[in-house]
Amino acid sequence: MVKKHFKLVSSLIITLFFAFFLSGCGSNQSADGSKGKTYTIKVANYFAADHPQNIALKEKFKPMVEKESGGRIKVEIYDNSTLGSEEQFIDGVKNGSIEMAVPGMLVAKDMPIIGLTEMPYLFRDYEHAQKVLNGELGKELTKGMVEKMGIRPLAWTANGFRVVSSSKPINKFEDFKGFRLRVPNNPRFLEMAKGLGANPIPMPISEVFTALEQKVIDGQENPYATLRASGFYEVQKYVVDTRHIFSPNLYVINEKFYQSLDPELQKVIEKAAIESANYEWKLLQESEEKDIQFLKEKGLTVVFPDDTFKQKLIESQKPVQEWFYRTYPGTKELAEKIMAVK
């Protein structure tokens, strides 16, 4: 009886030992417990839910991160300025209250050199822009971001070539004179609008639809995808295919949060950001022709400038390019390198 009881106790001890051992292995924890820690990444942006930026985040970035992190990272996407204006969510990533964001070049407030990407007529086409930004020049543009802003650039994405939507016809360059044009609140766009002869009116993108509807402004300028996804076509009649500025975006992450992650999780995020960003470039370019057709079907007239109109547009922005070179030392040399990329 005693022997049988001893065997039963021994068997129970061995079972408990293996259960404890397997449990310890399954948790994948280090001595400080960090290996088992889970995280939530909030990703903020100002794009509409069905914009290529958010489609890429939902179809690539979120599932890749959640799967390849083994469920240790949950991704929450906050589109359409849900977490505030672009300026507010950039500040959120800087101070760590938001882990990630996809801002535009408003980051140039802290990193003036990066604003060069939005110099008028810098990029020839999407292929040129992607080749530059995904290469060494793209790294040069973001150099020092961690030190200056406390945020880490992960990947360049495309907002697109900007066009002007209007409530009144613009058939020639001179029609821009006195035109009340909404622009982002930064000096680069104010100078661009002045070059056109327009009256620049800065405001957050979240206020643009109402301003168009109430005729506070005559028009706005954004890529086709934004014009469609934000519904601006509902309160506009014309689009002018100016392609005056190419606007990129960046995937950025709070540096302290990034450094708190295990190296393998850092690699998961970096890989997912690059794949998602590349997917977004593809989606945006594929959507452009469809967006133009969609706008036409909604009753908008799309104006493609003739050679005279195009030349006047380009000439109007040469003083703006010179303003860039004067205002931001070093941009002329970098701009020349960018334009030389074939």
From TrEMBL:
**Which keywords accompany this UniProt record?**
Receptor, Signal, Transport
Q: Where in the cell is it found?
A: Cell envelope
* InterPro entries named in the record: DctP_fam, TRAP_DctP, TRAP_DctP_sf
Q: Name one GO cellular component term.
A: outer membrane-bounded periplasmic space
Task: Provide the family line.
Answer: Belongs to the bacterial solute-binding protein 7 family.
* Signal sequence annotation: 1-30
Which Pfam families does the UniProt record give?
A: DctP
Q: What name is this protein filed under?
A: Tripartite ATP-independent transporter solute receptor, DctP family
Originating organism = Desulfofundulus thermosubterraneus DSM 16057
Q: Which GO terms describe its biological process?
A: transmembrane transport
